[in-house]
Amino acid sequence: MTPADPNPSVLHPGVLHPRTGDRHSPARPALRRRLAEEHGSIAPLALVYTVIALAAALLLFGAADLYLERKQLYTHADAAALAAAGTYDIRDIETSDGPPAVVLDRDAALLAAQQHLDRTTSGEVEILAFEVRGDEVTLTLSGEWRPAAGGALLPVSVPVEVQVSARARLE
Fold this sequence. Notes:
single chain; alpha+beta; two-stranded antiparallel sheet; 3 helices; rod-shaped
């Protein structure tokens, strides 16, 4: 290559690579030298991957915490429905047509469910729907989930609802 050569990337006949014997551009060794001189290029890449890994871990912990919150709300709803189903009085049993059947009083059952929730939760749970059909109680509870990990970074709350039913049985 001469200093007057306007395009140094053009292949020149007779210029061979020392190891492979291929024709190459005189600009390639200069490019290799520049790439070899780069230092610290792994640090930004490692930082980006670390941030991605921490975000994925935060998402995983949040999903597990939401799952556990829903399971806990189901536990409270089951217990409240059972407390409501157990409010029948022996005098409320009907024996007119067929086998004895329990008939629940709606107000007494709702009061028992609410009292149970007041004793076992700290007020973050509310009864959305309550229905009594003969000896069966259907209860819908609502609560809110807030992420335990990253709560300051992610100030959100997700409404969680569950529906359960319980029956009063004579034994």
